[in-house]
Amino acid sequence: MHIVLYAIRKSKGWLFEISLDLCIDLIWWTSEKRRDERAQQMICISSVIPLGWAIQCQQYLELDHRADCWSPTEWKQYIEKWLYNRIRNYNHSHIQYSEIQSVIPIEQIQLLWDDKLGKTEDIPFLLSTIEEKQNEGTQYPLSSTWKKQVMLGAITLAKMMTGRSLLATEYIMMMTDQQVDNIQEWKTYTQLAYLTQSLRLLTGVHIDPILGYQCQRCGSHTMNHTPCASCGSSACAYCETCLNLGRSRECTLLIQSVYVASSRTTPFSTIDIPIHTEHIQTKWGLSDAQTEATTSALHFLIGSANRLNPKAMLSKYLFATSFLSRINNKKQIPRTSYFTHKRFLLWAVTGAGKTEMTFPLIDSVLKNAGKVLVATPRRDVVLELAPRMAKAFSTTTMAVLYGGSEDRWQEADLTIATTHQLLRFSQAFDLVILDELDAFPFHNDPMLAYAANRCCKSDGAFVYLSATPPTALQKEIKRGTLAHAKVPARFHGHPLPVPKYISMPTVNNALKKKQLAHTLLKQLRYSVTRQAQIFVFVSRIALIESLVELLQSYFPQLSIAGTSSQDVERANKVLLFREQQIRILVTTTILERGVTIPYSDVYILDADSGLFDAASLVQMAGRAGRSKEDPKGLVIFASKQWTIEQKKAVAQIKLMNRIAKRKGYLHLSKSTDIR
Ligand SMILES: [Zn+2]
Ligand SMILES: [Zn+2]
Description:
This protein is α/β, with parallel strands linked by helices. The protein folds into 3 domains: 4-257, no CATH class; 267-487, P-loop containing nucleotide triphosphate hydrolases (Rossmann fold, 3-Layer(aba) Sandwich); 500-662, 3-Layer(aba) Sandwich (Rossmann fold). The protein contains 21 helices and 24 strands. A 7-stranded parallel beta sheet has the order 14-15-13-16-17-12-18. Helix 1 packs parallel to helix 8, helix 6 crosses helix 8 and helix 10 runs parallel beside helix 12 (354-367). The site of one zinc ion has 8 residues, from loops.
């Protein structure tokens, strides 16, 4: 995409600006209303320069009064040289000087405006544009009616874009979907919204003087270069990381809404105080454990960051200042604001009812005109959450977002989305709830961390939900830098089933011998007799089919099936399992979370496998004993060895049970064994 690059002389010197419609800039900068900001001179530089290069000039190039009496040739030579030196440092394919020369044609460098030479209405460029527009049949070009229409258009687009970050193609799709009037004038409207600082115009891929190439949509630095038909460059960079959401290029226009935190009261500052605990408990039907945790989360949200200890405040401050000092951008706009967010972790055991715990938090933010996002890594969880949220917040506008969902452009107060959808937002939400935090591939995928941080308003807050928080967060808790509440008990008030250990040879071995270990078989028979639904977890997909066969030979009367991430029938099989039409389901960690089956027993075979860490073992064990009717459930760790990860998992489960007992959250009967 091309854009117009022009130079503008203000009282302090020359700056560079970009434009989608030069008429708007001329009217804007030459208006008497601008006073000190008013342009003394404006010079058109190029209308065929690739967007990325124009933005380099706009953000990093400044000139003093020396340039006042430059000839077009001097302008051309100076900018070419500056751009060449700049881009050569980053572009791996050794850009040719001639390529830069060709995008700044000498005949385009012309004086657009000089404040000594007349009125806005007499600007030759405007006069010729009026003529053009009249020929095209546009009504009242540059008249007051036209100006009003442009103003309304800019306001409409800025409002539509609130909290969004979209590539030009998505932006146009959204305008079409929202049926914006006079959509063909979008460049004109957008330019005014840009000049009034309601919208930000960026490139998909930016060249930062320190960080090098960076995708401004997903934060990635992994680039590829190709010859580009769109901008004509021989090596236009594009981002490989977020490719599946449409190509983000060096020359792609990225439009972002502008958010100013300091100009408003946050929904948190207007939450009713005092918080009525009993009211919350009855309204949302929460257990004591749920109520206590959710209330402390609410207190935290209201109480701002003052709960952090001084050490944490200092490290946050140091991080923020070092981050800011790295921004060598004359406009000083930090692209993400992740150092300002409040964060709270709800560490809730499997089956604690964490979704219900978020209801009071969501409710209080929505009631105070805030926007809430609930993000989760998986599409099936989004689909499962959506109806529950819709039921709890029936009068709220809600958008459900995943790849290919129809709500894509819908404006909503409550958004339920898969993590990848966050890339289309910027400073959009007051409260961001990240469900299944440890399942976010954050550490392998910094893109999602980047997107999550950007979509939360700089004065907004994060609430993390997890049964098995990642080590980094557990360390933060120990250091006292992360506010949190533990929910050690399940909603039904029974302790978590503690895994039992069975020693047995590997699954591979059993398959070779076509024989199950006696100890395992005995347990399985017990589960079958007690009419349980049986989860059998294995470490690898390759084992599933043969194990199903082997199990079938022992239990010919039972319906046994296997499923994995590669199984298109997975959802259906889970349904049949839930309906007890399948009694034994052999699977992998793909079903370790998000699936709740009443009356189930859990068998983890090869539990000593390196593919199962403590978190994963806790999650799988968490499938058992979920229902009120059968709260005990059976969990078996079957393996040759007793590993440190198994030990950690059992220790974590026992610890939660002890805390729950101490706090009086358990309905203990004499036979309840929590050790
Ligand atoms: Zn390009
Ligand atoms: Zn990207």
